[in-house]
Amino acid sequence: MAHQHIEINYRPSLPCRSSIFNLSSVLENDNRMSYKPQLISIGPYHYGRDHLRGTEEHKRRYLNNLLRRVRLREENLLSEVRIMEQDIRGCYWSQFNNMTSDDFIRMLVVDGCFVIEYLRFYGGVYVPNLSDLLRFIQPISGILFRDLMLAENQLPLHLLECLYDITKARDGGENSTTLPALVVNAVKNRFNTSFFNFVEPGGNGIHLLDLVRNSLIRDLVPKSSNRTNCKAPPEGIYGIPSIRHLRLAGIQIRLKEGSKNVINVEFEKGKLLIPKLELTDSTFPVFRNFVCTEQCNRYNSDETQFTTYLAFLNFLIRTEEDMEYLCKKGIIVNWYNTNSAVVSLIHQISAGVTFDINCCYLTELFDQVNKHCGKRRHTQFATFKHTYFSTPWTFFSAMAVFIVLTFTIMSAVFTVLTYYYRGK
């Protein structure tokens, strides 16, 4: 089949200014493996690693199949990406001067087309041959998605948009589908969990991971606090108490129904409202990479939403009993073996993270909760309620004591009255 030459006029957007990070420079040795790809290398950081060489042939097959389908020559893509090379190199912390220009550009085209084909399949745009191993073996596909959501395994979004627009099928219904919409559909179709159900079109980003992150927080208000209005908290107060202590202070912990944002926590009229969070071996790695990306970029951006939410969970969940209570309330759906595993993971990810508690999207909530806990009458009433009405047995015991006390008082009053009237 003859290849048809087409005129390509795509021009890249602004460079993303060193926003794809090499986490090895900021992570301790024992944490680095949680952020390394297991199956596939995307981009230059892990290019050529021995344990990832097995998927290079598959990525090349994807590219060749794509070129045949849309009747393009590889040189069409290489020449267009070559124009963007310096911008793309500037998106990474490292410049990869050891890679020749040809090798770097070819890697970008092969990896970028693989990512786009993966998104097309799970986004419902194009169905590949059923014999394709990587797409139809579920466990491998899960690892693939995890690897695509690693902070070190990213390509600039404007590169993906360029390749996506060039390779759009000209005879299908794909022309009206934007890349962000395709990503949202792919994420939802691949993982039917409440965490990813919050992803909606409308977000943007500097790479795939950032696009998913921004889609999750797009309706979050406020996204960050105005730094000019920041104020220090009362002396000795940092964060909020744990679930156990919040309950002793009279605060009700409730599932927030109908929320459009997984981290949109609210506090109103003594109730802490928390959206449902489903924790699986797919959601937690993505969550970790959201946090790590925010930490690496904290000097360039005030947006630390997932870092703040992680700190919020770390404040709430100090023991397995705290975790068990959130699970019982339907706020957390835990697919890990034990509650202790999740508590340990939250504490592990939280270790060493930094954010400005006085200028984050939960600053006002932290202040409101602490003010509520500081009111003595709330604590006294909650303690009384917890002591005497927390279970049916304590309730019946309290009622028995009340009844006995009532009859004792009535008997005493009756005796005094009888004595009084007899004396008359």
Can you put this structure into words, describing what you see?
With 424 residues, the chain is mainly alpha-helical. 51% of the residues lie in helices and 4% in strands. It is built from 18 helices and five strands. The chain has helices spanning 29-32, 56-70, 74-89, 101-122, 133-136, 138-148, 157-166, 179-190, 194-197, 208-216, 243-248, 283-296, 305-316, 320-328, 339-350, 363-374, 376-389, 392-423, and strands spanning 252-255, 266-268, 271-274, 277-279, 332-334. The strands form two sheets. It has a three-stranded mixed beta sheet with strand order 1-3-2. The chain has a two-stranded parallel sheet with strand order 4-5. α3 crosses α4. It is elongated. 35% of the residues are buried.
Mean pLDDT: 80
Helix content: 40-55%
Anisotropy-based shape: elongated
- Order of strands, widest sheet: 1-3-2
Brief summary:
The chain is 51% helix and 4% strand. The chain has 18 helices and 5 strands.
Q: What are its keywords?
A:
424 residues; mainly alpha; two-stranded parallel ribbon; 18 helices; 4% strand; elongated
Indicate the topology.
Elements: H1 29-32, H2 56-70, H3 74-89, H4 101-122, H5 133-136, H6 138-148, H7 157-166, H8 179-190, H9 194-197, H10 208-216, H11 243-248, E1 252-255, E2 266-268, E3 271-274, E4 277-279, H12 283-296, H13 305-316, H14 320-328, E5 332-334, H15 339-350, H16 363-374, H17 376-389, H18 392-423
